[in-house]
Amino acid sequence: MIESPDPLDSEVSVSVDVNESGVTAKSKSRLISGLDRLLGNLSDWANVRLEGDIRARRATSTANEKVIGALADYAVDKLKVDPGFAERALASHVDGILRSQNNREKVAQRAIEDLRREPPSDEQARSGPDEISAEVLDRLETYSSGASTEELQERWGRVLASEIRKPGAFSLKVLRIIDELDSDTAALFEDFATHRVGEFVPKVLVGEFPYDRQLKLVDAGLLVDPNFGQSSSFSEIDIEANKYWFWRANQSLICLPRADFTPKREFGSKSAISTHDNKPAVPIYILTSAGIAITTILPPVDNSRPYYLRAKEKYPTASRWKVSADEKSVARIE
What we know:
- By secondary structure, the chain is of the alpha+beta class.
- The protein has helices at about 5-20, 25-40, 50-80, 85-115, 120-125, 135-145, 150-165, 170-180, 185-195, 205, 210-220, 290-295, 305-315; strands spanning about 200, 230-235, 235-240, 240-250, 250-255, 275, 280-285, 320-325, 330.
- The chain is about 50% helix and about 15% strand.
- It is elongated.
């Protein structure tokens, strides 16, 4: 007789986590739809008292064990296979099912932990569809089933949590890229992306970044090929009757008095500010759309001040201004 762990032990734990995750409204509905796919029928009982329903599910689990036994008897009787062979084949099949289920449950648990750390905003909780798209859930189910390491379980848990916060955050192409990332490339990108400012990574913040590492991220579909050098230009703005060049860095403006900037020819510059089309510009690496999407499952960063300090080393008159939440005004920070 094949022994299998009681699935209810983990289901009860996950159900409690669902109700204590801090996820509400439509985002909770999306959480239930995701866990329903990974764990099976969670939506029937995640929001009710567990005691009575557990008994019914234990009866179902016992019935399933009887079905497995009956399948083994059928294989011996109808297919005329050796009883030992039937038992081994069935054991292997069930073992694979249990491993896949265990992987999916670990992914679900990681997603809930991620949502606890970063709950959906009020707007995210109220908006969007009630369920994650079936196409995305199909892929998540497949990838989560094969997530046999803690690193992979953490990765797919973050993806599921991100889809719960903002459904449609990941295209099927991006999910494929995430699946194909080996652990070394994933770690390299995560470290590289800690220096990001929006979809750009200023070269001055990265420091020395060897070409073989650049190529690794390019081949993975995360970085635009930087062979010819890339930059992001400053724009013009008037603040309090003063004329500035500015570069947007998250919710900050890095400003430079227009009178203080002199265009210089600098090919391949890695300084904080170089020249492009006679304007000040930031030498950068550019993330691909897939790279940008993946940064949404990484810890948030704000590199506006680190970049500002490097810019101020080259231009002491540089200043940093805070953009208001409604985008209508700015206030000088330093």
